[in-house]
Amino acid sequence: MIVLACDLGGTRIKVGVVRDGRVLAQTVEEARSNLGLARQLPMLKSAWMRLLERLQLRMGECSGVSMAFPSLVDAANARVLAEYGKYADAMELDLREWARVELGLPLVLENDARMALVGEWRAGAGRGSNDLVMITLGTGLGTCAVIEGRLLRGRHGQAGILGGHSTLNIDGGNCRCGNVGCAENEASTAMLRRRAESLPGWARSALAQAPVLDYAQVFAYASVGDTCAVALRDHSLRVWSALAVNLVHAYDPEALIIGGGIMASGEVILPVVSEYIRQHASTPWGSVRVVASTLGDQAALVAGDWLLQEQFPHLRL
Ligand SMILES: [Zn+2]
């Protein structure tokens, strides 16, 4: 099955042509999410046309379109339910109708973290297991779960994907979601600068002079003993580890997959989270495997064929 896939991020849109869980060709476009989604749709169509031409494939050989969206969605009806400041017009769009008219193809829409887990489950680090949770460490913190071979969605499409907004610090700051002390508010790239600037001694930290403040810098400066970088690293590792225990307790997985851009420092993160789970999670049956994503930022792209078959079972393979 050949699928036209895209992963709509806040700053980048990944566009790909996928066959049987493998990306045949892909490109990355600037998101300009502040302009809305309707204005990006012609760009998506032309990007897919170019990729198909490069692969010497025709639109008629494709089975469908998959779209990963960074917010709450109604997957059954392919509608965006909330936009939280990204692609503000998305809730008004009938994307399924757009794909039918413009591409002649059925479309599936799903939350991006959920799609990333489906990708890992079918073709990546989660293959062979039907009980998985995933944490995506990045600008925000994405989570989701597969339980007994079923992708967890819930009555309103929210189940499993709000782990980043579980309370990790009852005395913490107000999060953009309305809750207080969320995991994402405590330790994510979006909140890194605010947290760093509140640390005593920040002005004297070498990290304060770094041209970019991200977790790659935090881990690099922490490894040479910069006090603020060590504080940021250690606090973040504790938050992500505690979040992992919460997810293990909530969803009873065999394995926890960790992905996202921050996992460029996975050699530091994985053993810490794994050991924290071993010490603090209640799992009398054994131990949860903690593994890195193997598909990286292609995970959400490769999930389309599974979702298309789930929602349109008559589709040809
Ligand atoms: Zn929150």
Sum up the structure in keywords.
single chain; 317 residues; alpha/beta; Nucleotidyltransferase, domain 5; 2 domains; five-stranded mixed β-sheet; 33% helix; globular; binds zinc ion
Structure description:
There is one protein chain. The protein is an alpha/beta fold and 317 residues long. It has 2 domains: 2-116 and 298-311, Nucleotidyltransferase, domain 5, CATH 3.30.420.40; 127-294, Nucleotidyltransferase, domain 5 (2-Layer Sandwich). The chain has helices at 41-55, 95-103, 112-123, 183-186, 189-197, 215-223, 227-251, 266-280, 304-311; strands spanning 2-8, 12-19, 22-30, 64-69, 73-74, 79-80, 107-111, 132-137, 141-147, 150-151, 255-259, 289-292. It has a 5-stranded mixed beta sheet, with helices on both faces. A 5-stranded mixed beta sheet has the order 10-9-8-11-12, with helices on both faces. Strands 5-6 form a two-stranded antiparallel sheet. β5 (73-74) and β6 (79-80) form a beta hairpin. α6 (215-223) crosses α7 (227-251). The longest helix has 25 residues, at 227-251. It starts with a strand and ends in a 6-residue tail after the last helix. Bound molecules: zinc ion.
Fourth-tier CATH superfamily name of the largest domain? ATPase, nucleotide binding domain
Structural class: alpha/beta
The CATH architecture classification of the largest domain is 2-Layer Sandwich
Tertiary shape:
globular
Spatial separation of the terminal alpha carbons: 5 Å
Radius of gyration: 20 Å
How would you state the average pLDDT, rounded? 94
State the low-pLDDT regions, or none. none
